[in-house]
Amino acid sequence: MTECEQSRVGREFLDSVSWPTLLRRPAHDQCYCHQCYSSDLPDTLTVAGYTYVIPRGWSRFAVSVDEDFFNHHNVWKTWLNCYHGTSIDNARSCVEHRQLLLPNDITMYGKKLEIREDHIPGEQYVFTTPSIKYAALGCYGHTYDFRSPRDSKLYTIKVVLQCKQKPDSIIAQPETVGAREREIKICPHFPNEVLEWKTKHRSSVMIYGLLLQVKGEDAEDDSNLSLCQSISITENQPHESIIIPPQSAPSNENVDNNPKSPPSNQAIDNNSKPTRSIASTYRSKWASMSRKRAALLIILVVSTFLPIAALIIGQIYKNDCPMQPWIPRWLIIFGAMGLAGFGLIFITMSITFQRCSKDTEVGNDISSYMFCLLILFFLAWLIAGSVWIFPANLEVQFNETNKKTYCHKTLYKFAFGLSLVQYSLIGVLICCCLGNVF
Ligand SMILES: [Zn+2]
Ligand SMILES: [Zn+2]
């Protein structure tokens, strides 16, 4: 069988960076390029009871492993597959050390490992990910321009290490590239909330392959580099950490041990922050999503129905409140502002959704500005309305139309109710905010 272009160029690249040949195991090389791994083959496998995402589009250049170590710890069957995106120099150093070193470790060449500036200061962990997509992001997996010595064609080559990781060493946490704020789902197989794995346990990550993604000059770049530019923004937000539930029955590889299996208390937690099992993260994610949806629906109904009703009632009875002529005006202005404001927000939001994800920030900024302005206006308008409506409650009467204390019953009751509804909405909002904080 002839070698595919991707494997050949990858091999030429490794020669050019003097990749340690004695640590290579070509017999275990595996190419997942579109030629070698056809599109009807599975995207994922279940290995050690957890999803192993096949690195589709990548070529594995196998690295020799310590067979006795692997047999002793039953690594192939009980450890989880993961990826570590890095530079080719770091990858070589990791392979030569046979492990991923922790920050502040001193290499065998006497060099102290600094914490990468884009990692969180004070967090001395080894970072991995179950998602090849996440590992391949520009901030992790480095990309190199490479000219093939055979045909002088230019290629870009991306570098990721393929590893096995001891399940109970893993603390899973959300991605740290700001994808959640922008509502970008990085990996189709894992939620953003569990994309990053970290551990302080030495020798709990074993490298078994170097993955290279080789692309011709003309191939389009889907690596979403823009995702990485916001790292500094999200760096300091608290991570919610989850421990991967360790394997209970490692004997049978084909048993579909889905992640809903209860977390084992064997899990060792290095982290003082509260930890939860993956299963409960999934569950709470769904719960919070449906809660969000319900809240959105209520807000939509209230924000379209109430302004229309206020506009109509204010218009019908605009001369029927000699006691406080500002009450019908208050309703009309409330209705008009409500409809116009929410209409504008709706339009900007739908424009934002139609555009590609890179531009979302612009649209989000505008609509959140307008949202703030609207909220401020409604607060002020509510206070003004309260001044006109509530004191009138003491002397208002709904029968004698020619007296100065008259106000139409429907008009007055509606205005009264509307201001109460707004106050209770403020209460609900405050509760929601407090609920999110704790
Ligand atoms: Zn191939
Ligand atoms: Zn790293």
UniProtKB/TrEMBL annotation:
Keywords: Membrane, Transmembrane, Transmembrane helix. Residues 245-276 are annotated as: Disordered. The chain crosses the membrane at residues 294-317, 329-348, 369-391, 411-437. Coiled coil: none annotated. Residues 249-276 have a biased composition (Polar residues). It comes from the Eukaryota. PANTHER family: MARVEL DOMAIN-CONTAINING PROTEIN, SI:DKEY-19B23.12-RELATED. This is Uncharacterized protein.
